[in-house]
Amino acid sequence: MQNPDPVKILLVDDQPGKLLSYEAILGSLGETLIKAASAQEALAQLLRHDFAVVLIDVQMPEVDGFELAAMIREHPRFQETALIFVSAIHLSDLDRLKGYEAGAVDYVPVPVVPEVLRAKVRVFAELYRKTRALERLNAELEQRVAERTAALETSTLELQRLNGDLEVRIEERTREREQALAQLFEAQKIDTIGQLTGGVAHDFNNLLMAMMGSLQLLQKRLADDPKAIRLVENALAAAARGAALTQRLLAFARRQELRPEAVSVPALVIGMKDLLTRALGSGVQIREEFEPDLPPVLIDANQLELALLNVSVNARDAMPDGGALTIRGTRARVVGGEPDVPKDLHPGHYVRVSVSDSGVGMDEGVLARATEPFYTTKGVGKGTGLGLSMVHGLAAQTGGALKLSSEPGVGTHVELWIPVAEQAVAPAPASAPGALGGGPGDRILTILLVDDDALVSAGTAAMLEDLGHTIREVGSAAEALAVLDGAGAAAVDLVITDHVMPGMSGVELARRLRDIRPDLPVILASGYADLTVGDKLDFHLPRIPKPFLQADISLAIAQAIAALPPGRQAVAIRASV
Fold first, then answer.
1. 507 and 358 share a domain?
2. Count: domains in the chain
3. pTM confidence score
4. What pLDDT digit, counting tens, does each position of 518-559 carry?
5. Are residues 375 and 270 in the same domain?
């Protein structure tokens, strides 16, 4: 679709195929696309036209992308032109720093995700368009000032007043533009960090899955060796701390697995009062203030409890000599435009859960960075810097918001805005007695295990075999379909599949199985909440987050079998001994 006010975008790459692909991806933006196959062609085009965005390949013969960017920035006309690097190699932090020093504003990795490339180019094209519009407006404004000045030369006071008005308007426009740029860059930074942390946590969860499963089985086999048991328990405890760390990373990246339900905030706080008392110590006085008949909120109860604990521990550390911590719950209604409401909150009803302390407080610099991941003012070994970033991610993922205020010497006030629950969430189905294997010799179910990670697959298979089940391992969804289309398909009672796999995801496999074996239960194992909105709405699967222990997978199997019709349960539970 043609843009009524198109801008020019320069595509620089020495490979014609890639230029064509960029042209196809960006064609729907309706902008004017100009291609250059070398740095020389790019410089020639830049001297002929005004470009809003320049897309530069990092690796080019003769003059590479970094050198071209430096040459562009040396020209006075191109000081503000947006330069985006496209790189087919993994760039180190030093490479990225080199690129930013050369003048780049963003990076796009190869293989290029069309939606990401279009989104990034669209942002800078719109920024260019709005900047030009602002320049035209300023030019028109200056012309009007000149006309007024000529007409009112005899009135010095009137002229001074007009000039004063003009300065104020220019300052306001400049301030608005600076604020818009700052918000844009902050959003891009947070999005980039979120993608990075989400991916790292996903891979780390797979490693922890293999470690914890093997350690738990080894623990059973070392029952007569107390020293070895202690070593295994230490390793399991360390792995559990790693799993907790990945959960905080996923919370910040908004990819954690949430189980929202209707939660009474007063009841939750009262239930964790003993935990808070032990965590904060006798020097901190805990107070609760809740409005009468406070409505329940829609949130994951465990994550809300963890969030309140994180905020309370931060408050304790800010009160080294003791003090008071107050937890409040009040109703709030958002219509839109209220000055004391966090921005980006949709209109609706909320419960405002606040935690206030009488500690040392934070200055403006620390407060501005308080929700950044890994940022902490505590000493080495005393904090990960993920507490408030986890709370911030939880609030955003549940449709709420986090608001912080603080004053040095007075204390800190943390507000968590949570949507009110319209109805209670149905409880999970009870486990089916007898569906969990009792021991290695029982072999109650034949389970098809689908996972492309050999380490994770081996560890999961060992846990299931220890429960007494018969396991068939495959490394892809295609192999699983081949097994279920073959002669032994009828012997498979249950499928446990990873979600993120090359070729076909776990959800896609479950859809195929729903068509060919609608009575076959499927459990989805995932390192993080990476399902699309369509997946979540279209298909509800029993899910188990990685890393999981033997008891977790045993319960998931029981619940999957319990959800089957009674006739099918009897078939699935029959032992094949």
1. no
2. 4
3. 0.43
4. 888 899 887 655 544 344 434 567 888 778 888 888 888 888
5. yes
